[in-house]
């Protein structure tokens, strides 16, 4: 079918998500072609009607870039089956999705967009984009703790990269990561016998949370534009 296109590429080119996210939507049965639930490997031809959760998708909308202050208790997912999903919480008039994640218990800066092309550029590990966090723990932050956290620790079958760590209070520290391992900071702390009480992301690349109120968002230009 020379005039067809793979479903995941078609969805990504509408700008609502990445190909990887489109694959997850296919596996979850959220995408349909001409009223038939899609499966992996489906292709889209000219004139086909593609829907997500019953709503048609197609022409790329104007790009949307949001900086959002995620509260604790909101899940970084677009899945409507999750009652705490962030899409229902934000209630933005356009379809958007998160770039990366924050644990449900964590707070702070989360980026959202409808531009699927920008996701890999922001998340690609080799780009070494910085993410900065303020963390409080259940014990005093010692020199040994700071040294161990900064030097790298073995978690999830690998070793974390050396990173910047600074004590900013008796039981609080600031940490700057260029990795995005699952629950990385919490796992690192647990390995050293500490329990995270609060975790707040305050910066991604050049984008700062600033004084954005909890639960609110601000619209901005492309995430890759320092201006």
UniProtKB/TrEMBL annotation:
It comes from Neolewinella marina. The keyword Cell inner membrane does not apply. It holds the Pfam family PseudoU_synth_2. Its EC number is 5.4.99.-. It catalyses: uridine(2604) in 23S rRNA = pseudouridine(2604) in 23S rRNA; uridine(35) in tRNA(Tyr) = pseudouridine(35) in tRNA(Tyr). This is Pseudouridine synthase. It is an enzyme of class 5 (isomerase). Keywords: Isomerase, RNA-binding. Belongs to the pseudouridine synthase RsuA family. Coiled coil: none annotated. SUPFAM superfamilies: Alpha-L RNA-binding motif, Pseudouridine synthase. GO terms for biological process: enzyme-directed rRNA pseudouridine synthesis. Residues 5-67 form the RNA-binding S4 domain. It comes from the Bacteria. GO terms for molecular function: 23S rRNA pseudouridine(2604) synthase activity; RNA binding.
């Amino acid at each position: 079918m020379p005039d067809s296109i793979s479903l995941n590429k078609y969805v990504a080119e509408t700008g609502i998500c990445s190909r990887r996210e489109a694959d997850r939507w296919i596996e979850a049965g959220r995408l349909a072609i001409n009223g038939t639930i899609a499966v992996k490997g489906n292709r889209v031809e000219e004139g086909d009607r593609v829907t997500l959760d019953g709503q048609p998708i197609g022409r790329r909308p104007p790009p949307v870039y949001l900086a959002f202050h995620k509260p604790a208790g909101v899940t970084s997912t677009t899945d409507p089956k999750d009652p705490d999903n962030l899409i229902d919480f934000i209630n933005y008039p356009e379809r958007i999705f998160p770039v990366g994640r924050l644990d449900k218990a964590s707070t702070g800066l989360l980026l959202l967009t409808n531009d699927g092309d920008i996701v890999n550029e922001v998340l690609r590990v080799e780009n070494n984009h910085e993410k900065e966090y303020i963390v409080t723990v259940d014990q005093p932050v010692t020199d040994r703790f700071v040294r161990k956290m900064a030097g790298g620790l073995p978690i999830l079958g690998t070793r974390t990269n050396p990173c910047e760590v600074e004590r900013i209070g008796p039981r609080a520290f600031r940490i700057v990561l260029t990795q995005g391992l699952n629950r990385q900071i919490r796992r690192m702390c647990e390995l050293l016998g500490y329990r995270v009480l609060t975790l707040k992301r305050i910066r991604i690349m050049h984008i700062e949370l600033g004084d954005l109120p909890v639960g609110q968002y601000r619209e901005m230009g492309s995430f890759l534009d320092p201006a």
